[in-house]
Amino acid sequence: MDKKKNISMAVIRRLPKYHRYLGDLMKNDVDRISSKELSEKIGFTASQIRQDLNCFGDFGQQGYGYNVSELYSQICNILGLVKLYKTVIIGAGNIGQAIANYTGFEKLGFELKSIFDVNPKLIGLRIRDIEIKDIDYLPDFLKENTIDIGIICVPSINAQKVCDILVKNGVKGIWNFAPVDLVVPDDVKVEGVHLSDSLLILSCLLNDME
Amino acid sequence: MDKKKNISMAVIRRLPKYHRYLGDLMKNDVDRISSKELSEKIGFTASQIRQDLNCFGDFGQQGYGYNVSELYSQICNILGLVKLYKTVIIGAGNIGQAIANYTGFEKLGFELKSIFDVNPKLIGLRIRDIEIKDIDYLPDFLKENTIDIGIICVPSINAQKVCDILVKNGVKGIWNFAPVDLVVPDDVKVEGVHLSDSLLILSCLLNDME
Could you say which residues bind NAD(+) here (chains A, B) (predicted)? Predict the structure, then answer.
């Protein structure tokens, strides 16, 4: 684990895919796999895989390949999936509701503790038994509850304001769905999902073919 | 535009951000901007910006900077935002409904033509006046209507099957929300949004701090 601090963002971005494929192999009772076989499944080159996995320990043995469960548990470790994360959603519009309704994140260890919105029509409603609360109560809620990740699903114009409240009250992880680049201190980590950006990349690729 | 074919994926992935920032500058009536000023706003280095923008034409003049509206319209051009795209959503669950409800994509030129699902409880319902249709009707619908982009929001296990129907019926763009890697012919472009992967990257970053 000593090597962990040096893992580049490029490698980190590939880790969830390793996690997904190795999880499937475990489900199919595969005990070990060579970098070549893994390469055929996952689509990275065998050399890339060896390089990536070498970043965080000495796995693969020449002529034996990787021990799947050992590698999987090490990747879970690096991804931080060995503990639970408490989350809140701010913004109970389309995307906020979709995320609140999706139970898959909980299976990975991300527990939704509360949902906040400004809209009086939404406040008091429940999504999977979690009540939507008035956003005015957010600072107090964060003082009373330790929250690891704030999921920002408000319109762009309010995203930085919401982010500032989260950061001020000790939230260190921000999952941002608003198409803006948030300003945070160094000890706060932001990961963004920009749906429009993703759609534009697709239209660019389509346009490129013509 | 001759240079366009050579634009790397890394540059393409940055283009939506240029599009977003230049759009804001236009709204604020900014006529021109230097790579240094743009760098301060957008967070890429000035040298990176000059390199990126040089990929698709001769903009910026020494000592003058970039003509904002000219650059914006060229980026729109490269992103393929000079025409309309017809889309269908397959899977009217949480994320499918969220996307169907979001009107922002239409403003960019992506028009939702229909929504399909297998669930009899959903079939016949309407989202923003668009009826959810039985997925059995998808092949016929695609034969009768030219669709540019299929938005896959079905569970992983059904995603490749849906993708195959889309591809077989001439859809060239796939926007994939299922956490699987789809197999498509070379002339079909896939852009994926893997929400769980994004959340795992965040937990990895949080874990890395400790």
Answer: 91-96
User: Where in chain A do CATH 3.40.50.720 domains reside?
Assistant: 85-197
Q: For residue B1, is pLDDT > 50?
A: no
A–B interface: beta-carbon pairs under 8 A: 170
Q: A-chain residues within 8 Å CB-CB of B17?
A: 181, 197
pLDDT tens digits along B167-210: 999 999 999 999 899 999 999 999 999 999 999 999 999 987 55
Q: Find, in chain A, the residue whose alpha carbon is nearest to that of B153.
A: A98
B188 and chain A in contact, CB less than 8 A: no
Calpha distance A25→A17 (Å, rounded): 12
Largest CA distance in chain B: 63
- Bridge partners (DSSP) listed for residue B66: B33
Tell me the ipTM for this assembly: 0.92
CB contact under 8 A, B203 and A85: yes
Token code pair at residue A43: 């689509």
Tokens of B120: 């009899």
Domain A85-197 has CATH 3.40.50.2300: no
| Contact at CB, A206 and B108, closer than 8 angstroms | no
Q: What is the pLDDT of residue B101?
A: 93
Question: Hey, what CATH class is A2-78 in?
Answer: mainly alpha
Beta pairing partners, B89: B115, B151
Identify which of B142, B178, B140 has the alpha carbon closest to the alpha carbon of residue B158.
Answer: B178
Q: Are A124 and A131 in contact (CB under 8 A)?
A: yes
Q: What is the DSSP letter of A109?
A: T
Q: What are phi and psi of A67, to 5 degrees?
A: -80, 110
Task: Quote the radius of gyration of chain A (alpha carbons, Å).
Answer: 20
pLDDT in tens, chain A (210 residues): 444 556 788 888 999 999 999 999 999 999 998 888 889 888 888 888 888 888 766 666 666 788 899 889 989 999 999 899 999 999 999 999 999 999 889 999 999 999 999 999 999 999 999 999 999 999 999 999 999 999 999 999 999 999 999 999 999 999 999 989 999 999 999 999 999 999 999 999 998 755
Region(s) of chain A under CATH 1.10.10.10: 2-78
B186 and A CB contact within 8 Å: no
Check: CB of residue B189 under 8 Å from CB of residue A206.
yes
Which residue of A12, A175, A209 is in closest CB contact with B199?
Answer: A175
Nearest C-alpha of chain A: how many angstroms from B125? 17
